[in-house]
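Hey, sorry to bother you again with one of my protein questions. I've been puzzling over a protein and I'd love to understand its fold better. Take your time with it, there's no hurry, and the full record follows here:
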Amino acid sequence: MRTALVLGTGLIGTSAALALSARGVRVHLEDRDPDQPRTAAALGAGTEEPPEGPVDLAVVAVPPAHLAPALLALQRRGAARGYVDVGSVKGGPRRELAALGGDLGTYLGTHPMAGKERSGPLAATADLFEGRPWVLTPTPTLDTEVLNLALELVALCRAVPVVMDADAHDRAVALVSHTPQLVSSLVAARLERAEEAAVRLCGQGIRDVTRIAASDPGMWLDILAANPGPVADVLAEVAADLDETVRALRALESADEAKRGAGAAGVEAMLRRGRAGRERVPGKHGAAPAAYETVGVHISDRPGELARIFADAGRAGVNIEDVRIEHATGQAAGLVQLSVEPEAARVLTQALREHGWSVRQ
C-alpha cells in the first residue's frame, strides 16, 4: 500500500491516518467539515490535497447511518482500488450499499475495537489500535486484492485481525460494547440529581462503572440507531435480570424467614453469575485472566511520584501487570493499586517499604 484516502477525520479516521503516515503511506484526508482534515494534517496524519488518481485503499470513517451513501459516492468516482469502512455496525450498511447498487466485490466492512471517551482529531493517536482486535467481515464475492489491502491496513496499525460474519459481529458488539454504554449511562444518570453528600462518597467503583458514560451522546445515538435490534435484545435480558434481582432484594425486607432465605439465594445467584461472566473477559495478551495480587501504595499528587514507584519496582525486578489509581476525596493524595504476579507481591512490598513508601497489601 502506497496511497490511501481517509474519509472522516474524527478520532478513528485520524488515528488510522496517523498510523499509516508514520509507516510511509501517503494519506489524503477528506471530511465534510473542512476544519477537521486541516487539524488532522497539522498533526501529521496526511495531506488535504486531493489525490491525482485512484488510491490503493479508501478508509471510510463516518457515522453508520452515512456509511453506505459515502461508500457509493467514492466507488462511483473511482476513488480507490479497494474500500473499507471502520464503522461499529456491519450488517446494515452492507445491505444498504448492495440495495443502492454498490460494488460488494471491492468493499470490505471492518471494525477496529478501539476508542476513547473523547472524539475528534485532537484525541487521535497513531497507537490507538495497537494490540486491539480489528474485525473483518468478508463476503464470498470480495476481491482477494481488497482483502489483502485490508489486512495490510490492520498490520500497519499494529492491530490483530479477527474474521467474523457481519451479523454475528453486530450481535457481539451489542453485548460487549453497545449495551455496556447504555448501562453505564443509566447508572450515571442516577447521579444527576443525587444529593451532594451522596456524590461526595463516590469511589473507584462508581468511577469504573460510569467511565464510558462521559462519551459523546450524539455519536452514540448514531451507533445505537444503526444496531437497535441486537442491543434491545441484550438490554431486555438485562432488564429481566434486574426485575428478578429487585424481587429478591424486596424479599430480604420480609418478616418471613423463608422469603428472606429465597431473597438471599436470588441475590447470591446473580452475584455468582456476574463473577463467572467477568472471569471470561480476556486478560493480558488475550489470555485467560490471571489471578494477580494487589499491592496498594499511598501516593501524593506531585510530579514524578508514579515514575518513582515504577522505577523502584523495576529495580526490585518486579513487572507491574496492571495499575489503577483511587483518588482521595478532597486531598492531593491517593492510593495506587499495583497488580503483580502473586509470588512477586512480597518482594515488591518489601522493596517499596525500603524506599520509604507507605504500602498496603
